[in-house]
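Saturday, quiet lab. Running sequence design on the C-alpha cells for the scaffold JK sent over.
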C-alpha cells in the first residue's frame, strides 16, 4: 500500500534536550484533523542548545514520526547558549557542544552519567561532581585532518563522511597546529596535489596528522599519502623548509604511505623527512615516546587529573601487585608501578606493548611485566606466567570491555576494581556483569576529558563485598 506524501512544512519548535551524541531533541504536535489529538513529530536537530527556539524545514512533515534536520534560523537563543560562537557557521564533526556555555556542558554530562548509572542500578548519590577544566579551549595534543577531493583540508561534515569542511580555526586545536594546517593547505594548492576521493579512492593526499607535547614543546607533522615519496621529494623538501621556518619546535616530519588505501592500518610505510620518527612527551613525571599511531591521552591537562583520581581510588600500597588491563603504552602502568610492588599490563596491540616496555625502560622501572594478548585470554594465562593481582584497573575502548571480559574479571576476584571509561553507556552495561560476582560500586567520578564534545570520561571504584 502506497503511503501518503504530505507537503513540506516550516515549523517553529523549542529544543527540549540533547541526547548522548549532543544532538538536540524537539517535539512538534500537528493540529488535529480528526479527534482531539494531533500527530506527533519528533525532531533531531544539530548545533542547538536546550531552550533554543528554532525554525526548521521538514519534508513530508505529517507523513513521518521523526526526522533529522538542521535549523534554518535561530529565532530565540537559549540562556544556555554561548553567544560568542557564531550561530551560522558550517559544522564539522567533533565539537557538537561548542554552542553551549561550558557550565551547561558540565551539567549536561553529569546528568548523562547519573542516568546511565541509574540504568545500571547505581545510586546517583555515588556520582561526584564532574571535574571540569579552568580553560577548556585549545586543549588537544593531537589533530588528524582529512584532505578532500575538492581541495579542502579539515574535518568531515557532521553526518556526512564524504564531505570535508576546510578548517580555518578550531576551539580544540593549539594555535601552532592551526598555523601548520594553513602552511600544508597552501603547499597543497601550490603544487596542485589532489586529495583522495572517498568514492573512487583516487588521489594522493589522505590525511594530515599533528601532535604536540605540551610538556616538552616538541611537534610532529605526518602526511598520509597513497604513493611513495620518491617522485615528490622536491615538493616534500619545500614543505619541510616552510614548516621549520614557521615552527622550529618540529622534531618529526614524516611521509606515511597508507598500505590499506583509505582504511586505517598499523602496517604503514613511514619515511622520516626530518628529525626522528617519534616525539617525547611527559605525563605524571614520566617520559613517553609518541609515534604517529600511538594511543595517548589527547587532553594532557585532564589526563593528569584522571591518573591522580584513579590512583587515589586504587589506594595502591608498596606490597601490592596490580593488573592494568587494556594498558596501551603504559599511561596508568608506569604511575602504578611507582607506587606498587609489581605491575602487569595486558594489551592486544603488539606495537603498544613494545612501546610500554620501552617507556618502562626509559623511566628506569624494573617492576613491570607487559603481555600482548586478548584481554580475556591474557587474564586466563596471567596467574601462571606472572601471578595473582591484588588490584585490577581497566581502561577499555569506548565500546567497553564486553560481557566475556567482565565475567573473566569477576572470576579473577581482586578485592578492588578501578574502571576507567570513555563511554558511559558501555560502562553502565559492563558494570552490571560484576554484580553476580559480589562487587558493588563505591564511587563514580566523571571527568570532562573532552570539552565541547559529547564524550565523557568516568572513573568507577568497585569493591568485592561478598
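Result came back. Writing it out in full:
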Amino acid at each position: 500500500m502506497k503511503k501518503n506524501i504530505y507537503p513540506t512544512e516550516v515549523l517553529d519548535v523549542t529544543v527540549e534536550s540533547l541526547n548522548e551524541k549532543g544532538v538536540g531533541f524537539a517535539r512538534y504536535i500537528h493540529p488535529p484533523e480528526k479527534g482531539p489529538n494531533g500527530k506527533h513529530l519528533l525532531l533531531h536537530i544539530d548545533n542547538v542548545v536546550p531552550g533554543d527556539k528554532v525554525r526548521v524545514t521538514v519534508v513530508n512533515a505529517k507523513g513521518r514520526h521523526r526526522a533529522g534536520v538542521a535549523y534554518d534560523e535561530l529565532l530565540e537563543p537559549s540562556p544556555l547558549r554561548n553567544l560568542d560562537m557564531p550561530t551560522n557557521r558550517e559544522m564539522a564533526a567533533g565539537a557538537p557542544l561548542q554552542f553551549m556555555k561550558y557550565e551547561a556542558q558540565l551539567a549536561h554530562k553529569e546528568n548523562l552519567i547519573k542516568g546511565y548509572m541509574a540504568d545500571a542500578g547505581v545510586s546517583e548519590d555515588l556520582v561526584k561532581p564532574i571535574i571540569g577544566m579552568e580553560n577548556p579551549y585549545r586543549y588537544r595534543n593531537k589533530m588528524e585532518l582529512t584532505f578532500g577531493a575538492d581541495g579542502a583540508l579539515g574535518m568531515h561534515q557532521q553526518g556526512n563522511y564524504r564531505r570535508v569542511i576546510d578548517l580555518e580555526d578550531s576551539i580544540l586545536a593549539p594555535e601552532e597546529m592551526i598555523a601548520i594546517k594553513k602552511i600544508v593547505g597552501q603547499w597543497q594548492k601550490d603544487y596542485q596535489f589532489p586529495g583522495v576521493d572517498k568514492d573512487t579512492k583516487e588521489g594522493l593526499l589522505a590525511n594530515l596528522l599533528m601532535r604536540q607535547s605540551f610538556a616538552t614543546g616538541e611537534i610532529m607533522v605526518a602526511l598520509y599519502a597513497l604513493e611513495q615519496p620518491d617522485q615528490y621529494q622536491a615538493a616534500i623538501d619545500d614543505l619541510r623548509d616552510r614548516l621549520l621556518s614557521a615552527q622550529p619546535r618540529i622534531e618529526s616530519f614524516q611521509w606515511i604511505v597508507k598500505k590499506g588505501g583509505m582504511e586505517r592500518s598499523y602496517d604503514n610505510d613511514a619515511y622520516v623527512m626530518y628529525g626522528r620518527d617519534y616525539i617525547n612527551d611527559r605525563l605524571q613525571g614520566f617520559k613517553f615516546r609518541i609515534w604517529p599511531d600511538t594511543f595517548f591521552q589527547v587532553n594532557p591537562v585532564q589526563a593528569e587529573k584522571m591518573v591522580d583520581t584513579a590512583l587515589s581510588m586504587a589506594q595502591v600500597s608498596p606490597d601490592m601487585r596490580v593488573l592494568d588491563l587494556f594498558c596501551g603504552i603504559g599511561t596508568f602502568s608506569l604511575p602504578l608501578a611507582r607506587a606498587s610492588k609489581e605491575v602487569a599490563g595486558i594489551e592486544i596491540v603488539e606495537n603498544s606493548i613494545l612501546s610500554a616496555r620501552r617507556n618502562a625502560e626509559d623511566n628506569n622501572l624494573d617492576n613491570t611485566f607487559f603481555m600482548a594478548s586478548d584481554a580475556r585470554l591474557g587474564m586466563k594465562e596471567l596467574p601462571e606466567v606472572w601471578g595473582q593481582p591484588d588490584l585490577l584497573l581497566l581502561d577499555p575502548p569506548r565500546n567497553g570491555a564486553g560481557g566475556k571480559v567482565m565475567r573473566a574479571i569477576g572470576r579473577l576476584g581482586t578485592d578492588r576494581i578501578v574502571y576507567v571509561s570513555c563511554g558511559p553507556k558501555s560502562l553502565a552495561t559492563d558494570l552490571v556483569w560484576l554484580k553476580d560476582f559480589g562487587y558493588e560500586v563505591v564511587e563514580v567520578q566523571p571527568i570532562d576529558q573532552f570539552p565541547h564534545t559529547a564524550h565523557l570520561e568516568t572513573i568507577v571504584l568497585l569493591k568485592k563485598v561478598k
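Notes for JK: The chain has a mean pLDDT of 94. Residues 157 and 204 are 21 Å apart (CA to CA). Ask whether to fix the surface positions before the next round.
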